[in-house]
Structure formats: structure tokens, C-alpha cells
Specification:
The chain has a two-stranded parallel ribbon. 71% of the residues lie in helices and 4% in strands. It is mainly alpha-helical. It has one domain. GO terms for molecular function: unfolded protein binding.
Amino acid sequence: MQFLKAALASFAMLFTSAAIVAPVAQAQGANVVVIDQSRIMRESAGGKDIIAKVNQIEQNMTAELKPTGDALASEGETLEAKTANMSMEAIAADEALSQEVRDYARKAQAFNRQRQIAAAELQATERKAWSDFFTAMQGVLQEVVNEKNADVMIDRSDAIYVSESVDATNLVISKMDAKMPTVTVVRQKIQAQAPQQ
């Protein structure tokens, strides 16, 4: 999922300063805890729930667009067959055919707008769901920091070497499973703008 990578990147920014501080903190004997954010997103019950629900919404969107897409494809084939051996001038000279071509172009343009809106809605839906997940996760991360008496928490991807003894990913996953086993994922609607004349 494309947004998953973007979400990981943006969430990782929360720990950038910790990653810079970690080597110094370690040298001073600070307690460092490591988590694997991508694993938490993929393997926690809430993360799996988001992925499944977003996939279902995507399938529903595809099903909604399919009839129009199929109809346009069929109409396009018919129009292509009619104009196969005609020059642009000949098409323009045939008023009925020329109107048919213009109508098809308008429908195709409208369908492309529908697809773009659907893609934007899916992205917004996914972004909202992960935002809710990350908000809940902040409290869990604070709990883990307190329980482990940690001075620094970093993501595994920012570390060169991680001992399993400092990896708290499983603990975060179990706490997230208890706190947020499911996530409400609602399709975000985007208001379509009227096409410019």
C-alpha cells in the first residue's frame, strides 16, 4: 500500500530527534527502547483491521466505477470502428458523428474525474484511519516508556544493531491489541467540483 510507506515515513519523523540522541544517550548509560513501527502496523489487530477495511472500501469503489468504465469501453470500441478509416476532416464534416465523438469525450472526461475523486477519497480514508491508530498508539508508547523506565525510544529502522532485550515491539502490539483491536474506518467523501466550461 502506497500510503502505508508514506505513513511510516511521517510517523518515523516523530522519532528523528530520538535517533540522533540515541548514540549519545547510550554512551551515557541511558535506557533505550526500540520498536518496529512497520511490524506494529502490519501485525497488530488494529493495523490488520485497517488494512482489511481499506481494501474492502477500495473493492467497493472499483465495483461502483466498473459499470461506467465497461460502458465507456464498449462505446469507445464502437466509435473507433465507425471512425477507423475516416480522416479528422471527414469526422468533422459528419455533424452527427462529430457530436457523438464530443459526447464520448465529455463522458470519458467525467469518468476520469470520478476515478480521481475515488483515488483521493481512498487516500483520505486511509490517512484518517492511520491517524486514529497513531493517536491511540501515542498513549501506548508512553506506557511502554514508563514501564521500561526508558530515556529514549527509537524505531528499529533507525538503528544499526538492536539487541532483542531492548525491542519492545511485541509489548506495544499486545497493548495496542487490547486498546484498539478494531478501528472505525469510514470512507471520506470529497466534494466534486463542477467541471469548467
